[in-house]
Amino acid sequence: MTIYDTDLAYIHDAGFGEFALRSAPGLLSLLRRNGVDHGLVVDLGCGSGIWARQLGFAGYDVIGVDASPAMIKLARKKAPRAKFVTASLTDFELPKCDAITSIGECLSYAFAGDESGKAMERFFRRVHRALRPGGVFIFDLAAPGRHPAGMPIKGYWTGDGWSILVESTEEQGVLTRCIRTFRRVGKLYRSIDETHRVRLYRSAAVAESLARAGFTVKTVNAYGHYRLLAGQIGLVAAIQ
After folding, report:
1. Which one of 1, 38, 48, 220 is most buried, counting C-beta atoms within 10 A?
2. Enclosing H/E stretch for 127
3. How far apart are CA 139 and CA 128, in angstroms?
4. DSSP readout, 7-41?
């Protein structure tokens, strides 16, 4: 099943790009404070390229990876100097690089079926091997408490030529979002449904897994002045 198909990718970029844009100054600061002030950054789950574009403005080389062809199409227009690849985040062959980022809970999507956490830990080891000495891995995950357990939460947003209805439930370590989009096509609106499942992680368990993979780990609750959402954890994993 494709997630973030054409209409949802467009709506996400048009109406929900604030997280990436407002996180960018703090993320750039984290990169520099960890000694990565230039070089190649791989952005896993690059979406429509908002963060990749900010990286390019700051002088970094960028490879953006996303499983959604529609997102990659938008990203290529938004950040034409970056390289973009349509691929699964878990299968993409990571090149040698100076930093890896994954913002917006993308790894929670990628490992939605990983109940034991073993697949994620293997992934962390791959990340460690890909990073050059002094490299850093910055990412965030969805965590328990995003919504009251077992209680559906509904939200509705609208913009120029589009609307979106989301019903979310949190049960047994998984957040499920049932999404219905409406996008104007000529004089009519097209409606498409998507269902997204996101694995929820506790920061202590993820930090332990990163440490076993060879990282020095810090947790963060904000990217600079931009605070992460309730039920969201940020991690900065460095190679000394």
Report:
1. 48
2. helix 118-130
3. 14
4. HHHHHHHHHSTHHHHHHHHHHHHHHHHTT-SSSEE
